Amino acid sequence: MLAIGITFVLMLVTMILLRSYTRHGREVDMPDFVGQNCNALIDTLLPSDYIIVVTDEVYDKTVAAGTILKQNPEAGEKVKKGRKVYLTVATSEPPKVIMPELRDVSVKC
Description:
Layout: H1 2-21, E1 28-29, H2 38-44, E2 50-59, E3 68-72, E4 78-79, E5 83-91
Parallel strand pairs: 2-5
Antiparallel strand pairs: 1-4, 3-5
């Protein structure tokens, strides 16, 4: 009986601690960051809200440099505070392409 009682108490304490550790039931809707300036977004967010991670930079001449093009998780998803948000940001420089060696090559039409 003592072993069953100790096991029951340990399971109860574990369940209570897990609920507080994982912040179960405290989800919020992910805001839409697409179209905002990345630097302004980082300055306005509190560090406890979300962790911003820029995963990719894409050249797009139709938008200003630093504009957020994609985000993961998507807007409207349920997430918890302190979640990492992965962003794809527009850059001002086009990608550099390696030019092939074109000397002594015949021209084919």
